[in-house]
Amino acid sequence: MRIGILTGGGDCPGLNAVIRAVVRGSQPSGDEVVGFRDGWRGVLEGDAVTMDLAAVRGILPRGGTVLGTSRTNPYAVEGGADRVLATLERFGIDALVPIGGEDTLGVAAKLAEAGVRVVGVPKTIDNDLDGTDYTFGFDTALGVATEAIDRLHTTGDSHHRTLVVEVMGRHAGWIALHAGMAGGATVVLIPELPFDVDAVVAHCQRRFDSGYSPIVVVSEGARPRDGDLVTATGERDPFGHVRLGGIGTALASLIEARTGRESRAVVLGHVQRGGTPSPFDRVLATRFGLAALDALHAGESGVMVALRGTDIVRVPLGEATARLKLVPVERYAEVEVFFG
Ligand code: F6P
């Protein structure tokens, strides 16, 4: 079998581990692996490279993706779907393994419906893909965010100021929720639950009153219940997502004005996405890669490999991309116990 592989959307620690697992795992059956560069762009334009053992040597601990990535959407390009089919024909590709989030796998689902043999692999540091308990990349991002919060506690307390940490999470607050709980945040704000500015200020004030300084962890996609605190540039990517950023800075100024104490914002941004994957993410990514191969050998198509408990299972791509996995209110209630 000739297998095409690609990585699309935002990069994510662990992508190389999946690529390596597919290439290494395909050796015994004699499958060939072709890597398309920069996600769906490489498929649209027929930009590909042979992925043999030499191509994957040493990449397990490396962040990013050796194949490159982009947010190219073939369905937003005139004749895009036909160009994708033509490339697959030209390269003699029997099956595709797209590694991506909701957007990349949304394209995969449409291609599967069009008759292409596809087994998707979920990735996103946001952990918001439905159908899987965890995506790889999340654990690494969480480690970065938690370490940052640990460090900010000591400098915040020394200067008696509020530190607002803005973390990634466009639609879902999983990074903020977990990092806020692991790091002992004063308040955690997530996109799923618009926040009350007065309550945030009151939590910060209470923290100051107890002799310590507040740490506010806010997802980039979080919004206040009322008012128009900030926060997007207005630019959109090919999947229609607005470029976010700015809620942390806006919130820090507001908290400073309302508490009368100095405040600073720290935007973790792409630091959360870069660098070497955690052992958990390397293992999950490797298992996903092997499971994708197994699914292809079992004749599957239109499915995504997923983690359920400790097992790797297959779920229909359509089901996995139909909605995002958001933070449930009861999970937020757990972290709320520690506010103030
Ligand atoms: O989807 C993952 C993600 O990291 C989001 O949390 C964030 O909004 C977005 O990617 C940032 O994308 P870009 O790399 O285009 O700035």
Folded structure, characterized:
There is one protein chain. The chain is an alpha/beta fold. It folds into two domains: 180 residues, Rossmann fold; 135 residues, Rossmann fold. The chain has twelve helices and 13 strands. The strands form three sheets. It has a seven-stranded mixed β-sheet, with helices on both faces. Strands 7-8-6-11 form a four-stranded parallel β-sheet, sandwiched between helices. It is elongated. The termini are far apart. The model has no long low-confidence stretch (mean pLDDT 95). The structure holds 6-O-phosphono-beta-D-fructofuranose (F6P).
Write the CATH architecture name of the largest domain. 3-Layer(aba) Sandwich
Which blocks of ≥5 consecutive residues have pLDDT under 50?
none
Bound molecules: 6-O-phosphono-beta-D-fructofuranose
Major beta sheet summary: 7 strands, mixed
Number of strands: 13
- Which structural class best describes the helix and strand composition? alpha/beta
- Any idea what the shape is? elongated
GO molecular function, one term: AMP binding
Keywords: Cytoplasm, Glycolysis, Kinase, Magnesium, Metal-binding, Transferase
InterPro entries: ATP_PFK, ATP_PFK_prok-type, Phosphofructokinase_CS, Phosphofructokinase_dom, Phosphofructokinase_III, PKF_sf
Cofactor: Mg(2+)
